[in-house]
């Protein structure tokens, strides 16, 4: 049986068939602040987990960083490659399940970030595997940034059994009504989020509530591998 968190593959296929992209091309402000906070120099290797349709990976590549970008969706990665080729930008694009990153990545990273991907994982076990998987691909002392949707107050989750079912959704950039896979989603409160992060072995360097145009309220955490 297909894992519920692969439902984005269907959504991308549906949207790309309409000649649209699901996400904007704007980089995530929280990511730019994290890069600046850590004074990450251009030319550094950075790994993105759940890169979607390229927006952050290509932005950083254009700025001179050496990006490896992973997503479980083959359609997303095909789209990323297409857009990157048109702009003559190089990124190491990889189709991989983020719960098993060490099976796909040959090296360890000092810098890893993931935008709006953990919140797609509903089950505790999947969330733990995701965090543990990022921990494993970091160098000792390496740092990670996670940005997850919602404000950390209250908890909500979708039914994973209907992640592939079609729903009518509003396409943000055009306002067009489109029929797409519902996908999955879990919002978690701050106390539970900190607990799951610490369970995976990370030190929390910073935990802040942020807001951006793509996702609204977000929980943003800066993590360090012990
Ligand atoms: C909400 S989208 C965010 C995409 C991108 N980070 C952005 O903000 O534009 C979540 C992404 O996570 C990917 N994803 C979900 N589960 C995954 C997994 N287990 N392994 C790798 N990617 C996954 C989806 O395919 C999707 O592209």
Write a structural description.
A hairpin with a 6-residue loop joins strand 7 and strand 8 (177-181). The termini are far apart. The mean pLDDT is 97. It is globular, with a radius of gyration of 17 Å. The protein has helices at residues 7-17, 29-37, 55-62, 74-86, 101-104, 124-137, 190-199, and strands at 45-49, 66-71, 92-95, 109-115, 138-149, 156-157, 166-170, 177-181, 186-187, 202-212, 216-225. It has a single domain (4-152, 215-225), classed as Vaccinia Virus protein VP39 (Rossmann fold, 3-Layer(aba) Sandwich), CATH 3.40.50. It is built from 7 helices and 11 strands. 43% of the residues are buried. The chain has 226 residues and is an alpha/beta fold. The strands form 3 sheets. Strands 3-2-1-4-5-11-10 form a 7-stranded mixed β-sheet, with helices on both faces. S-adenosylmethionine (SAM) is lined by residues 5, 8, 23, 50-52, 55, 70-73, 76, 97-99, 115-117, 120.
Quick recap:
The protein contains seven helices and eleven strands.
